[in-house]
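[Q] Does anyone have a clean C-alpha cell version of this?
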Amino acid sequence: MSNSTEKTAYNLPEISEKDILLLRKKLQKEQKERRIKQVVFLGVVMMVLIYTFIYLFI
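[A] Here you go.
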C-alpha cells in the first residue's frame, strides 16, 4: 500500500525544447487538416440534405 505523500516515479525519456516545438507544430498541422476535412464533409452532407429536401417538396 502506498503512502499518499509518495509520488509515482515515471521513467520518461528526455526530450529537448526543439523536439517539443517540432511535435507541437506537427500536432497543430494535423489538427488543422482534420478540422478542414470535417468542415468539407459537413458542407457536402448539408448540401445533399438541402438538395434532397428541395427535390422532395418542390
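[Q] Thanks! Anything notable?
[A] Residues 37 and 43 are 10 Å apart (CA to CA).
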